[in-house]
Amino acid sequence: MSDDPETEGDADEEVETDASAPDLDAIEDDLEAFESDLADLGEDLEAAETEDDLDVVEADLDAFGENLETVEIPDPPETENGEDDEDEDDEPAREEELQDRYDEIESDLSDLESDLEDQRGPYAEDVVGEIDGVSGTITGTRWSLEGDEELIAAVDSFLADVDDLLESDLSTPDDLVPASGAELGEGGEEESNVPEGLADALEDATTAVGDADLDADDDAETIAGLLEATDDLESDVDDATEWTDLEVREQLRREGFYQVLDHVKDFPPEWHALKVHEKRGNVDYILLAYDSLDSDFMEEHCLEALERLGPAEATEPMLAQANRRNQAAMRILGKIGIADDDVVDTLLDYVDSNPDLQKPAFRALGEIGAEEAVQPIANQLAEDNPDVRSWAARALGLIGDTRAIEPLGDVLAEDEEDRVRASAAWALNRIGTRDALEVVAEYADDRAYLVQSEAERADLEPAA
Q: What is the mean pLDDT of residues 227-248?
């Protein structure tokens, strides 16, 4: 034995390391036992006939999984360089083989757990869930007249099946009225009560299923019959005629869009009807046409009608279009003139944009009187494009905020383009305070006729 203390210490450390190394043989024996047990559990699951049998198997699978988690597979040994201690042509390390067996056992356990869930039921709760889903489809969809009638027949048939299976006494309400009114072009006074009435009837059906207290084992045949009836109901509802199944002109006819026509003067007839609706102020019908008709021609005329009317009802749809860079929608928002936060924020996004979008955005913000826009628009008075400077000046005049007096005065004094200076003078007159008017009045002898005209209009005399 060596007398060197360092050599002796290394030997002791090596012995200690070997003693603490994991017993791979024992781990392999454990995995073999788990594989055998899992095979037995698979046979137990295959033999299970009742929910109680499945509960026993589920508990065994849970215990099996907990025990499997206690097995720890060590990592493969590494070289001094930190790489696996094996060449590409070498056999995998034993630790890797054990890990592969462990992973396969885990995968087989997961498969058995899935098979167990598939083998359960069906339950009465499954029937209730299916009925609720169909009820949601009925109430969440717009149906045509034909669709309402088809839905009533479908639910009648379903309730009859439920009555046969549960010996219940269910029926659809007697006062159901299929879609009429607007749906038939009669002015929209009367609406269908079919979806809500059928939803109430289906809720009665789910109550009956719950009250039957069906057992997954003893009443399996009844539950299967209810699920089959529910599948038939779902299929019938899917086949019912939705509003969107109708052609656009048929939708408009049933909505009453054409009822204003005694005769067709213009082609297409939608254009003639649109003119009449605009004359009568029927904004809802103009928006209906705009939303329904896939025609650039009609879209243009719908937007022109809305711009002339400037109706508050158009705010939301026009805001959506303005967010898509629609210039006509921006102009309409200006005509509407509601300083809604969402509207102002949307228009402000285009203040520092390209000129095609700046022009309608400036105008709309001016017509709305958006004080939040004063500084962003005033910043545009320094832009190179004279058109942008002119639009910005006029927008500031429309807003009428006195904070714009100074920057507009600077434009009037310094801008090289007379048309921009004329716009600034117009804006100061529009603001109309004495401070604003005094700035304009100084340019009565200006080189530009338009600026002179604005200066002459600046009335500094107090009103009588």
A: 92
CA-based R_g, the chain, Å: 40
User: Could you give phi then psi for residue 355, rounded to 5 degrees?
Assistant: -55, -35
Sign of CA dihedral 293, 296, 301, 303: positive
Query: Would you tell me how many other CB atoms lie within 10 Å of the CB of residue 248?
Result: 14
What does the block give as tokens for 274?
């649109």
In three state form, how does the secondary structure of the chain look? CCCCHHHHHHHHHHHHHHHHCCCHHHHHHHHHHHHHHHHHHHHHHHHCCCHHHHHHHHHHHHHHHHHHCCCCCCCCCECCCCCECCCCCCCCCHHHHHHHHHHHHHHHHHHHHHHHHHHCCCCHHHHHHHHHHHHHHHHCCCECHHHHHHHHHHHHHHHHHHHHHHCCCCCCCCCCCCCCHHHHCCCCCCCCCHHHHHHHHHHHHHHHHHHCCCCCCCCHHHHHHHHHHHHHHHHHHHHCCEHHHCCHHHHHHHHCHHHHCCCCCCCCHHHHHHHHHHHHCCHHHHHHHHHHCCCHHHHHHHHHHHHHHCCHHHHHHHHHHHCCCCHHHHHHHHHHCCCCHHHHHHHHCCCCCCHHHHHHHHHHHHHHCCHHHHHHHHHHHHCCCHHHHHHHHHHHHHHCCHHHHHHHHHHHHHCCCHHHHHHHHHHHHHHCCHHHHHHHHCCCCCCCHHHHHHHHHCCCCCCC
CB burial class (10 A; 0-12, 13-18, 19+) of residue 97? middle
Q: What mean pLDDT comes out for the span 122-144?
A: 93
Give the pLDDT confidence of 291-339 residue by residue, as tens digits.
989 888 999 999 999 999 999 999 999 999 999 999 999 999 999 999 8
pLDDT digit string (tens) for 100-115? 999 999 999 999 889 8
Cβ atoms of 88 and 17 within 8 Å: the answer is no
Q: Which two tokens stand for residue 395?
A: 């927008």
Q: pLDDT value at position 1?
A: 42
Q: Among candidates 321, 322, 328, which has minimal Cα distance to 291?
A: 321
